[in-house]
Amino acid sequence: MNDNFEESLHRASQHLEAMGELPDADAVGTAGSEACGDMLRMWVKFREENGRRVVDKATFQAFGCQTAIAVASTAVRMIQGKSPEEALALTSNDLTAPLGPLPPMKIHCAQLVEQALHGALGASTPAANSPPAGTNLSESLAPAAPRKIRFLQPGE
After folding, report:
1. DSSP string, 8-73
2. Which one from 16, 19, 36, 107 is the annotated catalytic residue?
3. Does 53 score more than 90 pLDDT?
4. 65 annotated active-site
5. Exactly one of 27, 28, 79, 109 is catalytic; which is it?
6. What is the DSSP letter of 151?
7. Residue 72, exposed/middle/buried by CB under 10 A (0-12, 13-18, 19+)?
8. What are the tens digits of pLDDT across the range 106-121?
9. Mind listing the pLDDT tens digit for each residue in 8-28?
Protein backbone atom coordinates (compact mmCIF):
# COMPACT_ATOMS: atom_id res chain seq x y z
CA MET A 1 0.00 0.00 0.00
CA ASN A 2 1.21 3.48 -0.69
CA ASP A 3 2.02 6.04 2.00
CA ASN A 4 -0.89 8.35 1.12
CA PHE A 5 -3.37 5.50 1.47
CA GLU A 6 -1.84 4.46 4.79
CA GLU A 7 -2.08 8.08 6.01
CA SER A 8 -5.74 8.26 4.92
CA LEU A 9 -6.53 5.02 6.75
CA HIS A 10 -4.77 6.23 9.86
CA ARG A 11 -6.63 9.57 9.85
CA ALA A 12 -10.03 7.94 9.30
CA SER A 13 -9.34 5.34 11.98
CA GLN A 14 -8.62 8.09 14.52
CA HIS A 15 -12.13 9.56 14.28
CA LEU A 16 -13.97 6.82 16.11
CA GLU A 17 -16.57 8.95 17.88
CA ALA A 18 -19.13 7.07 15.80
CA MET A 19 -17.98 3.64 16.93
CA GLY A 20 -20.36 1.69 19.14
CA GLU A 21 -24.03 0.97 19.53
CA LEU A 22 -26.71 3.62 19.10
CA PRO A 23 -29.33 2.50 21.63
CA ASP A 24 -32.23 4.55 20.25
CA ALA A 25 -31.51 3.75 16.58
CA ASP A 26 -34.37 3.67 14.11
CA ALA A 27 -32.66 1.09 11.88
CA VAL A 28 -29.84 -1.45 12.05
CA GLY A 29 -27.95 -3.25 9.29
CA THR A 30 -25.45 -6.09 9.64
CA ALA A 31 -23.12 -7.57 7.03
CA GLY A 32 -20.28 -10.04 7.08
CA SER A 33 -17.69 -11.63 4.85
CA GLU A 34 -16.98 -15.30 5.39
CA ALA A 35 -13.87 -15.04 3.21
CA CYS A 36 -12.02 -12.64 5.51
CA GLY A 37 -14.00 -12.82 8.75
CA ASP A 38 -14.93 -9.12 8.80
CA MET A 39 -18.30 -8.27 10.34
CA LEU A 40 -19.95 -4.87 10.54
CA ARG A 41 -23.13 -3.52 12.11
CA MET A 42 -24.42 -0.03 11.44
CA TRP A 43 -27.05 1.87 13.45
CA VAL A 44 -28.98 4.84 12.04
CA LYS A 45 -31.14 7.47 13.78
CA PHE A 46 -33.33 9.83 11.73
CA ARG A 47 -34.71 13.34 12.24
CA GLU A 48 -37.16 15.53 10.37
CA GLU A 49 -35.56 18.44 8.52
CA ASN A 50 -37.58 20.81 6.35
CA GLY A 51 -40.33 18.23 5.96
CA ARG A 52 -38.08 15.32 5.00
CA ARG A 53 -36.51 12.46 6.90
CA VAL A 54 -32.72 12.61 7.06
CA VAL A 55 -29.97 10.75 8.89
CA ASP A 56 -29.35 12.47 12.21
CA LYS A 57 -26.65 10.14 13.47
CA ALA A 58 -25.07 6.85 12.47
CA THR A 59 -22.69 4.61 14.36
CA PHE A 60 -20.99 1.31 13.67
CA GLN A 61 -19.36 -1.65 15.34
CA ALA A 62 -16.80 -3.67 13.43
CA PHE A 63 -14.80 -6.82 13.66
CA GLY A 64 -12.39 -6.22 10.86
CA CYS A 65 -9.22 -4.75 9.54
CA GLN A 66 -8.21 -1.10 9.66
CA THR A 67 -9.56 -0.57 6.14
CA ALA A 68 -13.07 -1.76 7.06
CA ILE A 69 -13.04 0.47 10.15
CA ALA A 70 -11.78 3.48 8.17
CA VAL A 71 -14.43 3.04 5.46
CA ALA A 72 -17.19 2.65 8.07
CA SER A 73 -15.97 5.72 9.93
CA THR A 74 -15.95 7.70 6.70
CA ALA A 75 -19.39 6.40 5.66
CA VAL A 76 -21.19 7.36 8.88
CA ARG A 77 -19.92 10.92 8.49
CA MET A 78 -20.89 11.01 4.80
CA ILE A 79 -24.52 9.97 5.34
CA GLN A 80 -25.34 12.51 8.05
CA GLY A 81 -27.98 14.95 6.80
CA LYS A 82 -28.83 12.78 3.80
CA SER A 83 -32.22 11.23 3.15
CA PRO A 84 -32.31 7.41 3.14
CA GLU A 85 -32.59 7.54 -0.65
CA GLU A 86 -29.55 9.81 -0.97
CA ALA A 87 -27.53 7.63 1.39
CA LEU A 88 -28.56 4.45 -0.46
CA ALA A 89 -27.37 6.01 -3.71
CA LEU A 90 -23.79 6.10 -2.37
CA THR A 91 -21.69 3.30 -3.84
CA SER A 92 -18.71 1.61 -2.26
CA ASN A 93 -16.56 3.83 -4.52
CA ASP A 94 -18.26 6.94 -3.11
CA LEU A 95 -17.72 5.70 0.44
CA THR A 96 -14.00 5.19 -0.15
CA ALA A 97 -13.32 8.31 -2.24
CA PRO A 98 -12.03 10.34 0.75
CA LEU A 99 -9.53 7.56 1.48
CA GLY A 100 -8.25 7.22 -2.06
CA PRO A 101 -8.27 4.10 -4.23
CA LEU A 102 -8.32 0.87 -2.26
CA PRO A 103 -5.88 -1.90 -3.09
CA PRO A 104 -7.72 -4.72 -4.90
CA MET A 105 -7.52 -7.03 -1.88
CA LYS A 106 -9.33 -4.41 0.26
CA ILE A 107 -12.29 -3.63 -2.02
CA HIS A 108 -14.42 -6.13 -0.07
CA CYS A 109 -14.09 -3.82 2.98
CA ALA A 110 -16.00 -1.06 1.16
CA GLN A 111 -18.57 -3.58 -0.06
CA LEU A 112 -19.06 -4.76 3.52
CA VAL A 113 -19.83 -1.21 4.66
CA GLU A 114 -22.14 -0.66 1.69
CA GLN A 115 -24.02 -3.88 2.53
CA ALA A 116 -24.48 -2.88 6.19
CA LEU A 117 -25.69 0.57 5.10
CA HIS A 118 -28.17 -0.99 2.69
CA GLY A 119 -29.29 -3.37 5.43
CA ALA A 120 -30.08 -0.46 7.71
CA LEU A 121 -31.57 1.93 5.16
CA GLY A 122 -33.10 -0.51 2.73
CA ALA A 123 -35.17 -2.42 5.27
CA SER A 124 -38.87 -1.90 4.66
CA THR A 125 -39.42 -2.46 8.36
CA PRO A 126 -36.35 -1.46 10.37
CA ALA A 127 -37.35 -3.66 13.30
CA ALA A 128 -37.00 -6.72 11.06
CA ASN A 129 -33.30 -5.96 10.70
CA SER A 130 -32.72 -5.10 14.34
CA PRO A 131 -31.00 -7.46 16.74
CA PRO A 132 -32.74 -8.30 20.02
CA ALA A 133 -32.48 -5.51 22.60
CA GLY A 134 -29.15 -5.51 24.39
CA THR A 135 -27.45 -7.69 21.77
CA ASN A 136 -24.06 -6.45 20.61
CA LEU A 137 -22.29 -7.60 17.47
CA SER A 138 -20.23 -10.33 19.14
CA GLU A 139 -23.30 -11.72 20.93
CA SER A 140 -25.27 -11.87 17.70
CA LEU A 141 -22.48 -13.87 16.08
CA ALA A 142 -22.40 -16.47 18.84
CA PRO A 143 -23.58 -19.93 17.69
CA ALA A 144 -26.75 -19.86 19.80
CA ALA A 145 -27.82 -16.49 18.40
CA PRO A 146 -29.95 -16.29 15.27
CA ARG A 147 -27.84 -14.97 12.40
CA LYS A 148 -28.99 -12.00 10.40
CA ILE A 149 -25.89 -11.75 8.30
CA ARG A 150 -25.62 -11.85 4.55
CA PHE A 151 -22.24 -13.23 3.58
CA LEU A 152 -20.69 -11.67 0.53
CA GLN A 153 -19.77 -14.06 -2.22
CA PRO A 154 -16.35 -13.76 -3.90
CA GLY A 155 -16.57 -11.06 -6.52
CA GLU A 156 -19.53 -9.23 -4.95
Report:
1. HHHHHHH--TTBS--TT-SEEEEEE-TTT--EEEEEEEEEEETTEEEEEEEEEEEES-HHHHHHHH
2. 36
3. yes
4. no
5. 109
6. B
7. buried
8. 888 899 999 999 999 9
9. 766 666 667 788 899 899 999
